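Moderator note: this is an archived Q&A kept for reference. The question asked for a predicted structure of one protein chain; the sequence and the answer are reproduced below.
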Amino acid sequence: MSQSTKMKGKSPLRIKIISMGNAEVGKSCIIKRYCEKRFVNKYLATIGIDYGVTKVSLKDRDIKVNIFDMAGHPIFYEVRNEFYKDTQGAILVYDVSDKASFTSLDYWMEELTNEIGNKSELDSIVVCVCGNKTDLKRQVDESEGQLWADARGFHFFETSALTGEGISNLFQVLFEGVVRTCENGGRREPTTTQLGYTKEQIEAIQRLKNAKNDYERLGLIQGATKDDVNRAYRKLAVLLHPDKSVAPGSEDAFKLLVSARTALLKRC
């Protein structure tokens, strides 16, 4: 049977993809790199929404992809909020050379959640987290992005719209995930990893790295006793000791844990 005959076996599918993320993280450049195989060197801010269509073939089926590239500046919120409904796939982008764009990922997920509203619809969206501009000097380690995505069950990629690195793989996984979800009656398959670490380990590493003080790092309140400190330390040490944990960032997190314990025991 010829390929063209196979393609006729399944009806064409139309899917909706959106891009999210702060202004200037490279959302438009990523899309143009994939769709037009080129890099736009001069920065032109997206005004409101930029819309495009591309066609791909996946799983013996023609796919018409409608891409809504959403402006990241806050002033365009009233425009963006009209385009979240009926989304099937999302590219959530940050700039690895800009820490603030990474910390804003939580804001973008909150906006998506609020605008979708319906939990079942939200759970059906295939999300790919994308750390872009790997050709620049980093402020965000790859492990940080991987952990953030893993904790939420999202796919994770690092890309460079400048060089094209990682772009094709990002879209391939995104499109395949959306097609499988459509064929599964709108139920998204859980993102599974074989990385060998748990959600509890991910959350512990993130807390140790992002906590405002040593009490918060160990999950304690001020005034905790030495016994409290040691109990909290032992619990986290079992999770994060570099000899036992393969989660990205475990070694640095364990050093923070030891330092926090030492400092708190001096105060008790």
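Archived answer notes: The longest strand covers residues 49-58.
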